[in-house]
Recover the amino acids of this structure.
C-alpha cells in the first residue's frame, strides 16, 4: 500500500565535513519513512538554497531531500586554482557516504545536470535514477559562441591569479542568470545568494562546462532517467531515446517507457523559443 504523503517539513541546515575534502553546508528534509533520497545539484554561480530552496518542503512530502553547495560556490568546499566537474561528482558521492545514503536519485539543474551525469559515470553503483533539468551532454553552438568559449580558459586563469577579481562576486552575472524579478525583496535575496560566489569561480565553472562532454558514454546510462526542459531563447535541447529503438520519447517524460532509458543531449539554438521558465 502506498504511503500517504506527510506534511511539508522545514529543511535542516548544517555543516558536514567530507573526509579529506572539506566542509560544506547541507540542506536536508527527512521525508517519509523508507522514502527514496533525492540529491539536488544546483547550477552555475548559484547555491543550493537559491536553486532549490522553494521546493525543499514540497519534495519532502514524498522523498528524503538533500542538497549542498558545490565546491567554489556559496559556502562550499574550496576548489583551489581549478574547478572540475569531476571533483563535484566525487564530492556528492562523498556526501552520500558521510550521510549513510546507500542509493539516491541525482537531480541536476543546468551545470548540476552535468555533475549528475558524471555521478553515473564515476559512481554508478550509488544511483537509482537521474533527473536532468535544462542541461546537456555537451555545449555546442554557432562559430561565434565557440570562439568566445576559447577565451574562457585564459580569462578564468587570469581571474584566479588576480587578487582584485577575487573581490568581485558573481552578482554581476545576476541579470543574465536570474532574469527579471518583480519582487524587490526576492531580487535582493537572490543577488545576495550570487554574491557568495566569486566571479573568478564562476568563470572557472563556465570553462569546465564548456569542456564537458558525455556524448561518448551517455548512451550507457542504465537507470530510470527523466529530462526536463525549462529554457528560453538560446536553449538546451535534450533528446531522450528509450530502450526501444522504434520509439523516441518526448523531452520531459515518456509515458510508454518510464523505466530504463538512454539519453543523448546537446546544447543548441532552437528556432522557436519555449515559454520562459519560472525564476528562482
Amino acid at each position: 500500500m502506498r504511503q500517504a504523503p506527510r506534511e511539508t517539513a522545514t529543511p535542516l541546515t548544517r555543516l558536514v565535513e567530507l573526509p579529506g575534502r572539506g566542509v560544506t553546508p547541507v540542506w536536508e528534509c527527512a521525508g517519509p519513512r523508507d522514502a527514496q533520497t533525492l540529491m539536488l545539484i544546483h547550477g552555475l554561480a548559484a547555491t543550493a538554497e537559491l536553486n532549490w530552496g522553494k521546493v525543499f518542503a514540497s519534495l519532502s512530502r514524498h522523498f528524503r531531500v538533500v542538497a549542498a553547495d558545490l565546491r567554489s560556490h556559496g559556502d562550499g568546499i574550496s576548489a583551489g586554482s581549478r574547478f572540475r566537474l569531476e571533483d563535484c561528482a566525487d564530492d556528492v558521492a562523498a556526501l552520500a557516504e558521510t550521510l549513510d545514503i546507500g542509493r539516491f536519485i541525482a537531480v541536476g539543474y543546468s551545470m548540476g545536470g552535468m555533475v549528475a551525469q558524471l555521478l553515473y559515470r564515476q559512481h554508478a553503483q550509488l544511483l537509482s535514477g537521474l533527473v536532468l533539468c535544462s542541461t546537456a551532454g555537451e555545449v555546442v553552438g554557432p562559430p561565434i559562441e565557440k570562439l568566445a568559449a576559447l577565451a574562457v580558459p585564459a580569462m578564468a586563469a587570469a581571474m584566479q591569479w588576480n587578487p582584485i577579481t577575487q573581490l568581485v562576486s558573481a552578482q554581476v552575472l545576476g541579470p543574465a542568470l536570474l532574469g527579471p524579478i518583480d519582487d524587490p525583496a526576492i531580487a535582493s535575496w537572490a543577488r545576495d545568494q550570487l554574491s557568495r560566489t566569486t566571479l573568478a569561480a564562476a568563470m572557472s565553472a563556465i570553462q569546465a562546462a564548456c569542456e564537458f562532454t558525455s556524448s561518448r558514454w551517455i548512451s550507457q546510462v542504465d537507470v530510470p532517467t527523466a529530462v526536463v526542459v525549462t529554457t528560453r531563447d538560446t536553449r538546451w535541447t535534450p533528446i531522450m531515446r528509450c530502450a526501444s529503438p522504434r520509439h523516441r520519447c518526448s523531452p520531459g517524460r515518456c509515458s510508454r517507457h518510464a523505466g530504463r532509458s538512454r539519453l543523448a543531449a546537446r546544447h543548441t539554438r532552437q528556432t522557436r523559443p519555449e515559454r520562459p521558465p519560472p525564476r528562482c
User: Anything to note?
Assistant: Residues 1-6, 231-280 have pLDDT under 50 and may be disordered. The longest helix spans residues 143-161.
